[in-house]
């Protein structure tokens, strides 16, 4: 009997050790971009990976006093500047054909506008995974358009949102509001569910690649993970620092990452347990976006204001982390 108990304890200890050894961590690799002269700083809030992982995009780099803005593309992992487009992009479609700014949607290759938003300052957008649809909220409504013709197919009036996300299968539109996330059929507008109990404005939303989970962040550093099919909250956690960026799930759906503006910190969370796996300081003035490489091996974030510890830069750069076990 004692021998069996001893063997059982050994198995449990071994399982714990193996589990800990396989826990993902963020390991700094390099910085892509440029640094400014002493006393200057640049702003960056968008990062994205191409579908094949060979390039990354950002909404800079621009000089601090330069009013123009550029959508920049860099080779990955080399970090060589490939090209720039003079547009103010805040979101990219998955195929990188379209960009969305607070003012509207346009074509990346030419910069030509396709859709103009009702508000010229505060529009938010979300593209479908096949880049055929874009949803936007500006003013007191949500509208859905088809691409590339820019035709409006649906409008939800009196339902302005603070965040938007479209499920990977293109059927569900999630919109973040005060204390709730509304789920609707993207095309028909039929309500399919309501996720409640956030206590604040929901400012960041993202579906996992299989559509099974939804991660939502508030303007006070709260993050919740939901089972979409059963409309059940799985985990709720709090980190300091205010607005949470749109979360990003790893390709296998096991890990979710998000940035926090106030602390300039990126966080890594286990989806199944809700446990915080790691966090890194990337900037003194915000962390507005996160993106996993298609193979899940890397995570990129913007570094806006720079940090005062090595590797030091003054902002307007992309920080590259390897997602690895110690």
In short:
The chain has 326 residues and is mainly beta.
Keywords:
mainly beta; 326 residues; 27 strands
What can you see in these coordinates?
This protein has one helix at residues 2-21; strands at residues 25-33, 47-49, 55-58, 71-75, 81-85, 91-92, 98-100, 104-107, 113-116, 124-127, 133-137, 141-146, 152-157, 163-166, 172-176, 178-185, 191-207, 213-218, 222-227, 232-238, 248-249, 255-260, 265-270, 276-281, 291-292, 298-303, 317-324. The chain is mostly beta strands and 326 residues long. The chain has one domain (25-324): YVTN repeat-like/Quinoprotein amine dehydrogenase (Methylamine Dehydrogenase, Chain H), CATH 2.130.10.10. A hairpin with a 5-residue loop joins β14 (163-166) and β15 (172-176).
Number of helices: 1
* Poorly predicted runs of 5 or more residues: 7-21
Can you tell me the overall shape? globular
Order of helices and strands: HEEEEEEEEEEEEEEEEEEEEEEEEEEE
- CA radius of gyration is 20 Å
Q: What is the number of domains?
A: 1
């Amino acid at each position: 009997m004692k021998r069996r108990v001893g063997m059982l304890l050994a198995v449990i200890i071994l399982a714990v050790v193996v589990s800990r050894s396989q826990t993902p961590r963020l390991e700094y690799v390099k910085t892509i971009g440029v640094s400014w002269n002493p006393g200057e700083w640049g702003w960056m809030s968008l990062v994205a990976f191409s579908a094949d992982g060979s390039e990354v995009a950002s909404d800079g780099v621009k000089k601090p006093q330069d009013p123009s803005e550029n959508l920049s593309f860099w080779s990955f992992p080399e970090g060589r500047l490939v090209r720039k487009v003079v547009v103010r992009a805040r979101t990219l479609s998955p195929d990188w054909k379209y960009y969305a700014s607070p003012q509207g949607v346009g074509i990346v290759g030419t910069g030509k506008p396709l859709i103009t938003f009702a508000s010229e300052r505060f529009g938010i957008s979300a593209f479908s995974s096949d880049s055929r649809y874009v949803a936007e909220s500006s003013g007191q409504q949500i509208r859905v358009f088809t691409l590339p013709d820019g035709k409006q197919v649906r409008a939800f009036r009196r339902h302005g949102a603070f965040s938007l996300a479209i499920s990977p299968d293109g059927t569900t539109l999630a919109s973040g509001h005060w204390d709730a996330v509304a789920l609707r059929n993207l095309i028909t507008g039929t309500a399919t569910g309501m996720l409640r109990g956030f206590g604040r404005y929901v400012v960041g939303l993202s579906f996992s690649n299989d559509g099974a989970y939804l991660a939502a962040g508030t303007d006070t550093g709260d993050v919740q993970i939901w089972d979409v099919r059963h409309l059940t909250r799985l985990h709720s956690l709090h980190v300091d620092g205010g607005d949470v960026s749109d979360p990003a799930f790893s390709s296998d759906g096991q890990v979710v990452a998000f940035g926090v503006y106030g602390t300039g910190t990126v966080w890594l969370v286990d989806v199944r347990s809700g446990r915080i796996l790691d966090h890194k300081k990337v900037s003194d003035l915000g962390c507005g976006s996160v993106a996993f490489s298609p193979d899940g091996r890397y995570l990129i974030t913007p570094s806006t204001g720079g940090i005062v510890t090595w590797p030091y830069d003054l902002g307007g750069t992309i920080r590259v982390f390897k997602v690895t076990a110690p």
